């Protein structure tokens, strides 16, 4: 019996060895591989754009650039029971208005870029009847100066023409034209801003104060959708997703009323003697009185 087991084990060993030999004869040595040369990565539709890789932030800011502003609700003329026009001055040097003159993105530069790109139209008047051409707008935004110089080699005087760009820091005030009206259908006192104008100050010889005049007017309903994609700088929170349309529509600014619609088209300052020592204080108090009258008018519409 032991001989049978030995023969059986020997046969199995020889059979296994033969199979291993056959497998060894069928295996070929793999050819040596050469290192592949680096290829330029292909840009496909799923590739990440470079502007989303190199950003000056943690994540790309799209809450403002992709936001959609809600259009004004439709109003019928028959539903307007009362209406009054007001003109305001926004002084950007006030603390609450410092966002208008932010170093990174001042409001004047935003308007200038929108006008230069042809996105909005600039007007010469506050009634939006006289649009300004590209050359006329450029003449207001850029100033051509002539500087005389003397050439000591030829002993001749030369005139150099220099094109100076208007510095946004010289724009310290903005004018706002708006309408307050009572919507009889909704029983609510509402307001709509019609236009915004940057104010230029020019020193004129003989005047005791600088001459102020608007550079141009923009029609706010036209620029509202574009301003909704421009972010407002904030001291409180850099992530605050507030756009310029949010700031203006929600009236997050301080202003002084300098004119209310009237028959003689008088400004507030025209009702007082400019030579009076208290003229400036009288104008400011009258402006606050107009604001209080507007508030009381809305308050008196309701009964408590």
End-to-end separation in angstroms reads: 119 Å
The helix fraction, in percent, is 25-40%
Order of helices and strands: HEHEHEEEEEEHHEH
Number of helices: 6
Supply Rg: 37 Å
Tell me, rounded to a whole number, the average pLDDT: 81
Percentage beta strand: 15-25%
List the uncertain runs: none
Structural class: alpha+beta
Q: Give the number of DSSP strands.
A: 9
Give the overall silhouette: globular
The major beta sheet can be summarized as: 7 strands, antiparallel
Give an overview of the whole structure.
The chain has 304 residues and is α+β, with helices and mostly antiparallel strands. It has a domain at 80-140 and 168-300. It contains 6 helices and 9 strands. It has helices at 2-26, 107-116, 134-141, 220-227, 244-249, 279-300; strands at residues 80-91, 122-123, 142-151, 156-165, 173-183, 188-202, 211-214, 217-219, 256-260. Strands 1, 2, 5, 6, 7, 8 and 9 form a 7-stranded antiparallel beta sheet that branches. A hairpin with a 4-residue loop joins strand 5 (173-183) and strand 6. The termini are far apart.
Brief digest:
This protein has 304 residues and is an alpha+beta fold.
Detail the topology: elements first, then pairings.
Blueprint: H1 2-26, E1 80-91, H2 107-116, E2 122-123, H3 134-141, E3 142-151, E4 156-165, E5 173-183, E6 188-202, E7 211-214, E8 217-219, H4 220-227, H5 244-249, E9 256-260, H6 279-300
Antiparallel strand pairs: 1-5, 1-9, 2-8, 3-4, 5-6, 6-7, 6-8
């Amino acid at each position: 019996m032991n001989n049978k087991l030995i023969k059986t084990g020997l046969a199995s060993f020889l059979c296994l060895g033969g199979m291993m030999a056959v497998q060894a004869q069928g295996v070929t040595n793999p050819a040596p591989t050469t290192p592949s040369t680096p290829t330029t990565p292909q840009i496909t539709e799923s590739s990440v754009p470079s502007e989303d890789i190199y950003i000056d932030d943690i994540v790309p800011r799209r809450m403002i650039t992709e936001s959609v502003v809600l259009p004004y609700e439709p109003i019928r003329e028959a539903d307007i029971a009362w209406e009054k026009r007001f003109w305001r001055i926004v002084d950007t040097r006030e603390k609450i208005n410092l966002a208008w003159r932010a170093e990174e993105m001042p409001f004047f530069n935003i308007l200038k870029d929108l006008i230069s790109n042809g996105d909005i139209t600039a007007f010469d008047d506050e009634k939006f009847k006289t649009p300004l051409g590209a050359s006329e707008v450029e003449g207001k935004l850029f100033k051509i100066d002539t500087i005389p110089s003397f050439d000591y080699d030829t002993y001749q005087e030369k005139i150099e023409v220099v094109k100076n760009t208007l510095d946004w820091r010289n724009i310290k005030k903005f004018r706002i034209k708006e309408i307050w009206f009572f919507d009889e259908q909704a029983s609510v006192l509402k307001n709509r801003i019609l236009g915004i104008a940057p104010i230029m100050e020019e020193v004129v010889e003989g005047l005791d104060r600088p001459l102020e005049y608007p550079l141009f007017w923009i029609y706010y309903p036209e620029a509202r959708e574009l301003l909704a994609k421009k972010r407002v700088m904030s001291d409180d929170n850099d992530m605050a997703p507030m756009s310029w349309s949010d700031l203006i529509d929600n009236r997050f600014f301080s202003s002084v009323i300098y004119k209310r619609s009237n028959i003689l088209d008088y400004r507030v300052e025209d009702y007082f003697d400019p030579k009076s020592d208290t003229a400036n204080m009288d104008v400011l108090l009258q402006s606050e009185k107009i604001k209080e009258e507007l508030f009381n008018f809305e308050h008196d519409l309701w009964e408590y």
